[in-house]
Structure formats: C-alpha cells, structure tokens
Amino acid sequence: MHAITVLPTDATDAKGRHRPGPENMEWSQVETPTPGDGEVLVKVHAAGVNRGDLLQRQGLYPPPPRITDVMGLEVSGTVADLGPGVTGRHEGDQVVGLLAGGGYAEYAVVPAGQLLPMPHGVDDVVASTLIEVAATVVSNMDHVGLEAGETLLVHGGAGGIGQFAIQYAKALGCRVITTCGTEEKRRFCTELGADIALDYHGDWVNGVKGATDGRGADVILDVMGAKYLGLNVDALAPNGRLVIIGMQGGAKGELNIGALLNKRGTVTATSLRGRPVEEKAEICRRVEEVVWPMYADGRINPAPVEVFPISEAGAAHSRLGSGEVLGKIALTI
C-alpha cells in the first residue's frame, strides 16, 4: 500500500533540533498492515489532519509504543478485514475510526472498539474529521463534570476543537465564552452559538469577569498550556475547573497556588492518544451515544472542511500551520 512517510533531514531549528518540514512528507510504498487480535483493517477514504500530526512530523509528539510512525489520528473508510476475535463488524461496513497513528495511508489498522458507524447525514470526507475533536471534548467535559447552567470558556473557538466545544456545551444548556484572534473568527463563533467572543490579544480575563458579573468561568477548556496558566486561574469561578488539553503556549508555567486555593479550584490535564484501548473504546461509545444524534438532528454542525489529496499532505500541513484555517482539513485518497 501507499502511506505518507517523513523523509530524514539535516535541517535544524535555532536550538539545533531536527524539525522536518512539510516538504519532507512523501507518498510512498510501505507494507500493508495486518489486523491483530481485536483489530480491524480499514480501507481509508479520507483522513483528518490535526495539530498533533504537525507536532509528530516535527519530532515533538512521537507515537505511543508499538504504534506505527505513519501519522493520522482519525479516518473514515470501509472495513476491509477483521482480526481474530472481532465481532459485530463486517467487511464493507462504512465506519469512522479513532487511531493512535496510521491514518495517512491507503489502509489503517484500528482497534474494533474505536470504530463507529458513519453519523447520519454526514458524507465520508467530513466524517473523517469528527471523531478526534468529539472524543477529546466529550471525555474532558465528562472528566470535569460540565453541567447545564454553567459557564464554559473555550480558547481558540474558531478551531476544530473550539467549534465543536461551543456547540456541544450549548446543546448541554451551558453559557459559552470563547477567545479568538480576529473579528471574523469572533463573529463566526457567535454564529455557532457562543454567547461572548473575546479578542485574545486584549484583556480577556476581565472580559470573562465582566460577562459573568465578576464570578468567572466554571469550566475552562485550554489548548495553550503554560502561557495561559496564571490567566486561566484568575478567570476561574469559585470551585472552577481548568482542563488543559494542549501546549501551544508552552509546557512549563508558574502556578499561584494561593490563588487556586482561594477559588477552591481544580487544574487537570488530559491527553487522548496514549490512553489504553479500553478507555478509548468507552469514549467512542459515549460519542456514538451522545454526539452522533446531535449531528443527526442539527444541534451540532460539522466544522467547515478544506480538502487536499493525500499526495499533497505537505501542503495540508502548511495550511494548518498558517493559523488561517476556519475549521478542519481532510486528506482524500
């Protein structure tokens, strides 16, 4: 089969670290994988592109042990073969898959519990971009116990995670505040349902307090990490919960424990990719049960999708890295 591989490079960044660029991605011949116990071989129709893929290409987000070096965390496609012990799946089934890697290929191996049927009314290209964000947001909102009537602050509301989180929280009956970098993106987020969209270049902490009569946000979903750590704690409501799912603003920050104590706040951080397959299977079941009906009845609309042929995966990475994408990117085979 063919898959996207990353060519070695002698180029280094300012710190002397090797960082292969998008031009080092090649659509080349590799061995077709064989499904093992409890696994399914999927003939890939389309693969979603995520920021984690960019980090993996740069050597900053390696796959978990025993996972292929081929990038790709989500796909749509057709069941092509079943490994030993798999039940409830059949060759020819149209599916969406959550992967720890391997999606940028003609065929991908997926644990059977991480396969979902196509959501009703969504085409296979768009479907390839849904499961990673849905699984991330739903698992984290379950983790911190987001409830109807609470206020959720979502950073980066115009991105794939943000767009889903805004709509999901509104469907749960929450108030939503988001941060974005441009007026166009802030307007887009309010059209999605955000009650307040703030400019992250400005004083968004006081913006959150002003929108909540000084109380702050009950839950904050953060992709920035270190850069926003102290600001997020300041923006928390009493008994508020900050959940960190990304490190776009750095990995090491300073935490004012006194401020956190005064708010009786919680700071937690989670990742999806390295979880045990049993946990990810449970998350996928939760997504199918709760989220797929929301797509079917229109409570949630998929993010806009920009499409690239998989042979142009490097161009797709450049596009996502530009910060100009309003939604998601998919690679088609």
UniProtKB/TrEMBL annotation:
Residues 21-331 form the Enoyl reductase (ER) domain. InterPro entries: ADH-like_C, ADH-like_N, ER, GroES-like_sf, NAD(P)-bd_dom_sf, Quin_OxRdtase/zeta-crystal_CS, Quinone_OxRdtase_PIG3. Its EC number is 1.6.5.5. Keywords: NADP, Oxidoreductase. The keyword Transferase does not apply. SUPFAM superfamilies: GroES-like, NAD(P)-binding Rossmann-fold domains. CDD domains: p53_inducible_oxidoreductase. GO terms for molecular function: NADPH binding; quinone reductase (NADPH) activity; zinc ion binding. It comes from Acidipropionibacterium jensenii. The lineage of its organism: Bacteria, Bacillati, Actinomycetota, Actinomycetes, Propionibacteriales. Pfam families: ADH_N (PF08240), ADH_zinc_N (PF00107). This is Quinone oxidoreductase 1. Residues 1-30 are annotated as: Disordered.
